[in-house]
Amino acid sequence: MNKPPAPHKKFFSVKRICVGVITALLLCILVLYIQTHITAARYAKEVGASPANYALAENWLSLQGENGDKPADVFFLYPTCYFVNEKEFCALDDPDMREEAQKLRDAHIGIFDYANFYAPYYRQLSIPYIEKTLLLGTLNQAVAAVPLQDCKNAFEYYLRTYNRGKPIIFASHSQGTVVMKEILVWVKEKYPELLERTIAAYLIGFTVNEDYVKKTGLDFTGKSDDTGVIISYNTESPGVNYNPFTFMRRGTLVVNPINWKRDETYAGKEESLGSHIRFGDAPPVDRFHFADAQINQKRGTVITNAEVTEDYWSRGVLHRYDYDLFYYDLQHNVRKRMAVFFEKRASRAP
What is the model's pTM? Predict the structure, then answer.
């Protein structure tokens, strides 16, 4: 009669299986990590060999051209508009990406109605590839490979062709913010004179922290009317545990887009100036006093009880609505910061 295996032998057998499974998982992660680097390097080489031509008006989502007669400019980078699984990056003329970008332009351009609005088309990472790079911690490398190259080229063309010394508002969302974060660091290094002409930078839909802000030469906003500052937040419903856009929680800087405070002071929906919100694929509609807002310092996010749902991301991650929910609060804030900027400039004039 066979004896049952001793307990300690069972333990070591289970232990070997666990070690094997963990080793296999780590090897898979390592392979994926290497693959994302190889993919990024390949695309970077291709983009370097065929840079986007921003002298062509067709490569701009919004181009005021030389007709930009307002006193300041906005340089805007739109969020992810490329959703397919087939490729890691889209072509500059991808029709689906462009169609979605045009919808977002139309939904958000009114926030910056007192400024000339410039927004380049750029080759984007696909949503599935972003998810993979977030998991592996290689998002910045992927962004640097393609989108950043395009957006640097676009900004330099805009700067030498259309800006003509006007003050600038930088604005972005989601993938656009990941790119814009790198743009601001690069601007400080290559065009430090622009810091004095920066009204504000609205880096919405991805986290920033103190270490990052120091690299830009700007400050993080402390009130509703300071200038030369960064504004950033991510929006959630109550009870969210995971948000892919707030992975960098330690030292995360966040501002409440209704009361413009950085503490947990609650802003009721009666304080909000209103939302301009897209429900599904329908055109945006106005909803006044629709969203409240309160910072959750532990999570580094803005919490709202507004009754909206997100179809793609985790339940309660209101990434799509970061601009929409606080549309008229943002519009009023942009106008206010512009007015203060020009008042300061006038007071310094000889």
Answer: 0.85
